[in-house]
Fold this sequence. Notes:
- One of its GO terms (cellular component) is 6-phosphofructokinase complex.
- Residues 9-299, 377-653 form the Phosphofructokinase domain.
- With 761 residues, the chain is of the alpha/beta class.
- Helix content is 41%, strand content 16%.
- The strands form 7 sheets. It has a 7-stranded mixed sheet, sandwiched between helices.
- The longest helix is centred in the last third of the chain and has 25 residues, at 637-661.
- The radius of gyration is 27 Å and the shape is globular.
Amino acid sequence: SNSLNNFSRGMNAAVRATVRVGLYTGAKVYFVHEGYQGLVDGGDNIKLATWESVSMMLQLGGTVIGSARCMDFRAREGRMKAALNLVKLGITNLCVIGGDGSLTGANQFRTEWSTLLVDLVKAGKAKTSSHLNIVGMVGSIDNDFCGTDMTIGTDSALHRIIEVVDAITTTAQSHQRTFILEVMGRHCGYLALVTALACGADWVFIPEMPPDEGWEGHLCRRLADQRARGCRLNVIIVAEGAMGRDGKPIGSEDIKKLVEKNLGFDTRTTVLGHVQRGGTPSAFDRILGSRMGVEAVMALLEATPETPACVVSLSGNQAVRLPLMECVQVTKDVTTAMAENRWEDAIKLRGKSFENNWNTYKMLAHINPPDTKSNINVAIVNVGAPCAGMNAAVRSAVRIGIIQGHNMLAVHDGFEGLAHGNIVPITWTGVSGWTGKGGSELGTKRYYIISLFQLSLLSPLLLSPHQAFMGGLELVTAREKYEELCIPMVVIPATVSNNVPGSDFSIGADTALNTITSTCDRIKQSAAGTKRRVFIIETMGGYCGYLATMAGLAAGADAAYIYEDKFGIRDLEMNVEHLVQKMKTDVKRGLILRNEKCNANYTTDFIFALYSEEGKGVFDCRKNILGHMQQGGTPTPFDRNFGTKMGSKAVLWLTEKLKEMYRHGRIFANTPDSACVLGMRKRALTFQPLAELNEQTDFEHRIPKTSWWLKLRPIMKILAKYNISLDTSEHAHMEHVIKKRVSMPAPLIKKHKEEVEEEEE
């Protein structure tokens, strides 16, 4: 395992998973310390890895095996030394974690491998020739590598940035200041763009899309307009590589001077720098690193001498394998497009996720409400338990609705408020600052009353857990009796449980997952001095085991009990024995997670008593019920961004449906596709009719009948050293970046094909 150049949080999770899955398959696994320099120098820089050597890695930032730039590796002589060191140890598979430069170097090393070995054999330093397999994982906080939605470390960097933004916001509001925040991103504006979406920034500067000519006047007018609307602060986000159309850099100090000179606003700048790299990795980065590590080992085991070097990537929630050099070439094409002033091409080449973020930002920040109204009412209702990210979705929905010319209405206290007419207009400034607020500003109720058919409202947009899904179904069913309900409706999943059918993710689940993970870290740390201790922790989720499973992966749990994966007394007995054996190693602590409704008889108290009794003399137990702290707190960057995009897309869909269903001066919608759930399925946001999701729903337990994340449970068990079989029937297959980017300009597609053919030759 080889970590190169810069580092990012989450790399250690990838190293841990690579080591443990490699050992699980029976392979020898080596650490290469200090990147390519360690590969060239050899000796103690290349050490055999053991299971216990990665036990404390998961929650650590940076990379414990070191990272370094290496000039020696750029020369053939240096690569010859690296090849010799690998041959001596019989290493024929190399897993490289780094950016595009590091991965390009790895591919060159592989391409030269046969000739390097020929020279070594001639010199008598090697006996026989062999082939070298290489797989890459991308570790970069900038998210600047094309072919993957997220690189390892990006989410953690966003956590640090948003933490700073939230702190700055309170200061700016108190003093009515303008704050300019400069974030990393020399060649890629992902961090700046997502930060702008997540905090509702007034302006963002990114390298891929320089501002239009005359932007200085436009920026000042926008800031002045926001103050005139009653906003007490302005926030501007700048990527460090931001530039104008003339190619000149745009720095935070330049913007500060402009604002102070033209507007006289009290303005401050903050340059975050390397604080974005350090700290504890987020739950997402731990899970991403773990999944990528497992997939990397699978790719190496299945590789042949003819298999091209690949990089393991993330698309939606799917792990995919892509040809390494295709991804590197597309990444270089972005730089070329920017140098040639082809800004739209640069945005498209960054990928669909980046493009969607940019389009959403443009709609929310740079379009003024129209002069003419649509005479359409859109009501927003929060139903069920509150969760972090709901307010971001409401803010986005309200502002996009106003931009479309609609009358936006807020329904307070859920369906009960709708029944009792607790409905008020909501304005553009009425949702200012909502992206960073937890809970539900509109108020919500866990129950609903379907006796509300005196409606003069149009098109409800429902944000909530399973209750809104069920309530939506009842509204659709009641259309036969109440004509007023023949209006378009959309449900946005928003629940910490992540149990809404039709969506792989729900708003709020990521925030809850990070809360659980950070709590588990603290609980485990408390056992650092007190050895031989097992912690049993109960999580929320109803009957859905998403939180327990994903927190188990992120926190390195020894077991996670959930309703969907049935267990009995024999399984509990096996888990106790597993912990007894673990206490004989250097890691003398255990972590058990239990979903709150996984089993009516095997309660948290029962499991605690069982473990306490069976572990007597070997370990003692403690239990923790996390409770409603999982629903609170400020939303994570993911939930803010996800909620913003979901709210925007939902209102745009409602607008199209309203136009489509408008007949003879009225709206009449009674088709199945006029009442949908908006959800993320694999790689895209999709609208699915509520009626069609009936068959996919276990109504008794309020969970979907199938869940994608259940396939990750074997990974958690293998990483905890259980001897189970790993199902590889649905492993990722090699895909092509060119085929994925069908919207790429024709000249670039032709250019790509020619370059790939040359590379293969």
